[in-house]
Amino acid sequence: MEDLDIGSVLQNCRSARNISLRQLAEMTGMTASMLSQIERNLVNPSINTLKLISMALDVPMYKFFLSEEEDRDLVVRRDARITLGRPETEDIVYELLTANVSGDIEFCMMHVPGKNDSHNVETMHHGEEVAYVVKGRITVYVNDVPYELEEGDSVLIPPESLHRWKNDGDEECDVLFAITPPSF
């Protein structure tokens, strides 16, 4: 297994957002000294530390574990997609359709089994999201307003809008969506 360069990824993400070490320290509750050591690969951060940093920088945590070669790929093969999940929605599966999240947009497929929902966990993104129902029927609640969507329908979820998904049907629903900027 090749060595990870978490420090460079952290430094690049922080610089791209024009955030100083001191600002990131305030955002995470860590010291600037500790963050500097992580950026110089002198300290290996824990998963919890990376989670705090990724949330503060609004970057997906798995980005810290990609090699430069993996992050540069342009094509994503059907059998090589990164599968994402969230603990609060363990039955709902997200497949990353973009090769990386270093650009300005993220493209995913969400699979929601029948009789399943996001367990009343509302999500919010800093950017906007567009979702397109590929298969099935689903209800999306945007700021507590329900929108019934069928195959072929799409919805714009504005920035900073609380939203959640619910599949009342018996069949799985597949939803294709794009988010800008990337949030996973």
Automatic annotation (TrEMBL):
GO terms for molecular function: DNA binding; DNA-binding transcription factor activity. Keywords: DNA-binding. Residues 10-64 form the HTH cro/C1-type domain. InterPro entries: Cro/C1-type_HTH, Cupin_2, Lambda_DNA-bd_dom_sf, RmlC-like_jellyroll, RmlC_Cupin_sf, TransReg_Diox_bact_type. Signal peptide: none annotated. PROSITE patterns: HTH_CROC1 (PS50943). The keyword Flavoprotein does not apply. The keyword DNA-binding applies. GO terms for cellular component: cytosol. This is Cupin domain-containing protein. It comes from Anaerotruncus massiliensis. The lineage of its organism: Bacteria, Bacillati, Bacillota, Clostridia, Eubacteriales.
